[in-house]
Amino acid sequence: MDSSTSHPFVRSFIPSGETSSSQRTIGGSTSALSARARGLEVSTGGATPTEGGMTLYLKAGPDGTSVGDCPFAQYVRMVLIEKGLEYRIRPCGSDDDKPTWLLDYYGGSIPALRHKAECYVESDVIAQYLDFFFQEPSLSSKKRIMTEAQEATSDFFPALAKYLKHTPDSDEADGELQANLEQALQNLEDRLTAEGRSGPFFVGNGELFTLIDCSMAPKLYHMLVGLEEFKQKAIDIPNKFPSLHTYMETVFARPSFVESTYPKETIIWGWSNARNK
């Protein structure tokens, strides 16, 4: 890859009126001063990122120091592990735990990946950045095929979040939210049982494990725990959605999921806080 070519994921998180940190840290003294002003060291290499120097800032658990229940942070961790990239974890229980540059220039948003002289926020942006620059193994397919899978999976987590947050449980509104979630689950089931599939995963014919699977696995884990803890297992996943159930068993056994996961008690803590707001 030409080291002078900018990648497509930079501008979505750069503060208004600023250039990308790649642009700021390459070249003259103005760039160097700008990087230092943001609390980031000055890059001494080229524009194309290299391995090392990665720190992931993410939500802390109930003790303020352990890894919290954020499925978006686990998504990023799965990508990092699948790529074999070394990284450090910095759980943040409050803004007091976040560096000044993260608060001042990125609104304290987490998960945030600090990679040497760069910072990336939003889990999809981070994941795409990693897959773009660290291409082995690839976690993407052709754009059209990825888009089809994204469309099939996009309704799931919003429906799940609305259902798990809703109280009181088992009222009329709760039933409507359950029905919405079941429709989203049916979309997943239909995707996994579509004609011409030969593998277990969401994209294309199912043979390739992709970013979409890294994104979906933590969210499905939240669903299993949430249904059991808050909704009396109102949806029978194994019987109503057998292919999805098999998919979950497959991705939950994947080393990147096992290594990045957290106890179900942490998920219960997180959703309990959301339900009490």
Task: Describe this protein's structure.
This protein is an alpha+beta fold. 50% of the residues lie in helices and 7% in strands. It has 13 helices and four strands. Strands 2-1-3-4 form a four-stranded mixed β-sheet, with helices on one face. α3 (71-82) packs parallel to α5 and α8 (172-192) packs across α11 (242-252). The longest helix has 21 residues, at 172-192. The chain is globular and about 50 Å long.
The largest sheet is: 4 strands, mixed
Helix content: 40-55%
Strand order of the largest sheet: 2-1-3-4
On the 0 to 100 scale, the average pLDDT is 86
- Computed over alpha carbons, the radius of gyration is 20 Å
What structural class should be given to the helix and strand makeup? alpha+beta
Q: Give the uncertain stretches in residue-range form.
A: 1-39
Give the number of helices. 13
Q: Give the helices and strands as they follow along the chain.
A: HHEHEHEEHHHHHHHHH
For the secondary structure, the number of strands is 4
Keywords:
277 residues; 13 helices; four-stranded mixed beta sheet; single chain; alpha+beta; 4 strands
Q: Secondary-structure blueprint of this entry?
A:
Blueprint: H1 21-25, H2 29-37, E1 54-59, H3 71-82, E2 88-92, H4 100-106, E3 112-115, E4 118-121, H5 123-133, H6 143-153, H7 156-165, H8 172-192, H9 211-230, H10 237-240, H11 242-252, H12 255-260, H13 264-275
Helix pairs in contact: 3-5, 3-9, 7-8, 8-11, 9-13
